[in-house]
Design a protein that fits this description.
It contains ten helices and two strands. The chain is mainly alpha-helical. The protein has two domains: 99 residues, PSPTO4464-like domains (Diphtheria Toxin Repressor, domain 2); 67 residues, Diphtheria Toxin Repressor, domain 2, CATH 1.10.60. Strands 1-2 form a two-stranded antiparallel ribbon.
């Protein structure tokens, strides 16, 4: 990477940034734009993988976003976010911003997905036979006993006010299988 001296402070900025920016842009403005792109990248990291894949992002950026979702270390995640910000500088962010604001696959926003998951969770937590049957019909590879045990444990945790580990485990299972489940709740 080639570095050029900044006309104000004498510090070095990457040549690629200086070439893309007009001579009227200050170092502060360039940094603000880079930070905004990094924040946009952070919003993308929070999206589910299937939504990222459908956005038509460049392969390098898509892979970096998917990798960032699995990084647990705080420092490594920060470096990955910075890398994503660097990749974001190479593309036009306007279509990405529009895609984040636009409805996705007929769903007005992500909360609609969350509402559907919540409806399924409520039905399963109530241990309604129709809900368990519909879930098992949509996911035949699942074990009936395992589903009942997971719902029973989640219901017991809720009643005792303890940690929500079992509920989170059940919610994760429902979320993973959401593409196979009917759009409406059974019954």
């Amino acid at each position: 990477m080639i570095f050029l001296p900044n006309r104000y402070s004498g510090s070095l900025l990457p040549a690629a940034i200086m070439e893309k920016s007009s001579p009227d842009k200050s170092k502060t403005r360039i940094k603000r734009e880079a930070e905004a792109l990094q924040k946009l990248g952070e919003k993308l990291i929070k999206l589910p993988r299937y939504q990222l894949e459908r956005m038509g992002l460049p392969t390098d950026l898509l892979n970096a976003l998917i990798d960032a979702q699995s990084i647990k270390s705080h420092i490594a995640a920060r470096r990955q976010r910075q890398f994503i910000g660097t990749l974001m500088r190479e593309i036009d962010p306007a279509p990405i911003r529009e895609a984040l604001l636009a409805p996705f696959d007929g769903v007005s926003n992500e909360s609609e997905f969350d509402k559907t998951v919540k409806r399924w969770m409520d039905r399963l937590m109530a241990q309604e036979p129709a809900a368990i049957e519909a879930f098992l019909n949509a996911c035949p590879e699942m074990d009936r006993q395992q589903i009942r045990q997971m719902t029973r444990n989640a219901k017991k945790e809720k009643a005792t006010g303890k940690a929500t580990r079992a509920r989170k485990k059940l919610e994760h299972l429902v979320t993973q299988r959401m593409d196979r489940l009917p759009d409406h709740t059974p019954g």
